Amino acid sequence: MIKTQNIVQRVLLQKDEVSIDEIIDLGCQVKKSEHSIRASVNRLVKDGTLTKRKKDGTLFYKLSKEGERKIQIAIQKHMQIDSQIAGDSIEEKWDGIWTVVVFGIPETLRKKRNELRNELIMLGFGMLFGSIWISPYNKSAAVRKLITSLKLEKHAVVFQCQTSELECCNNVTDIVYRVWNLKRIESLYRTHIKPWKHLAHFLDEAIKKKKQLEARKLFPKVLKMQLDMMDIYVEEPALPKELLPKNWIGLSFHDLVHYVTSLLNKMEFSDKYAYLVQVHEIQGMMLPPSKLCAEAMKKLS
């Protein structure tokens, strides 16, 4: 289900601020009442995600610093997955080395322990045991920086090792299936690939017939599909090809998403909302050309 928060965040990826009238207009496309939309936006102001101002009798909203931080976390995860699946790293042969994080954090620091785990997931790590997390990519520098920022140097260590040194498992396949639930991820891909195929066919036909569409009406469908994709990306570790099952559906899904994106960019829309369904290629990744995306890319580089 699309929430008002999802709509606001998508608009504010490309606009510095948005009027309440535009939020209500787009919210109505997903059958939300004006009352519920206003209530949702007020909650976002109250929890510190948005700030508001009044101009000529109309309320305008923009992201707070905390709101920008939350969105950038999601952008960075998308960028990491996108680049690892399609970028040069997926073409390079895996060197067989794992980055390993081991920690023993006391209960008094539970909040920091949870934050460390969440950030490790964002970096693509998987849990081998409760306090042992691994990644097939060289993430040592990023993790050490994270540990330092959380002031957990006395409670966590980072090192690298070969598969043979992970004595709890017999081979690479055992490790992969123990750490990452690839069967569940594959099932999610199979479920969500269908609407992308349908949309690709629909857009192909519209372009052939030179038919103009209303981005305003297409937006809810595209947004729902993008949100479903992000749900997959939360679990997707973007493993090197050597560690993936044969004919991994994630690669086909990724190619299809980029194909649909290219079709959306070719479309001519009859209204002002084209910016909500069109994105551009930024260093090989399909992202909205916005300040938030640019800043997220700097942090990952």
Question: What keywords describe this structure?
Answer:
301 residues, alpha+beta, Arc Repressor Mutant, subunit A, 3 domains, four-stranded antiparallel β-sheet, three-stranded antiparallel β-sheet, 12 helices, 9 strands, 54% helix, globular
The pLDDT mean sits at 85
Pattern of helices and strands = HEHHEEHHEHEEHEHHHHEEH
**N-to-C CA distance:** 34 Å
Q: Structural class, judged by helices and strands?
A: alpha+beta
Low-pLDDT residue intervals, each spanning 5 or more residues: none
Task: Describe the fold and architecture.
The protein has 12 helices and 9 strands. The chain is α+β, with helices and mostly antiparallel strands. It has a 4-stranded antiparallel β-sheet. A 3-stranded antiparallel β-sheet has the order 1-3-2. α4 crosses α12, α9 runs antiparallel to α10 (215-235) and α9 packs parallel to α11 (249-266). The protein is globular, with a radius of gyration of 21 Å. The mean pLDDT is 85.
Short description, anyone?
By secondary structure, this protein is α+β, with helices and mostly antiparallel strands.
Layout of secondary structure:
Layout lengths: L3 H9 L5 E2 H9 L5 H13 L3 E6 L2 E6 L1 H22 L1 H4 L5 E7 L6 H13 L3 E4 L2 E4 L4 H10 L6 E7 L9 H8 L2 H27 L6 H21 L13 H18 L13 E3 L2 E3 L3 H10 L1
Antiparallel strand pairs: 1-3, 2-3, 4-6, 4-7, 5-6, 8-9
Helix pairs in contact: 4-12, 9-10, 9-11
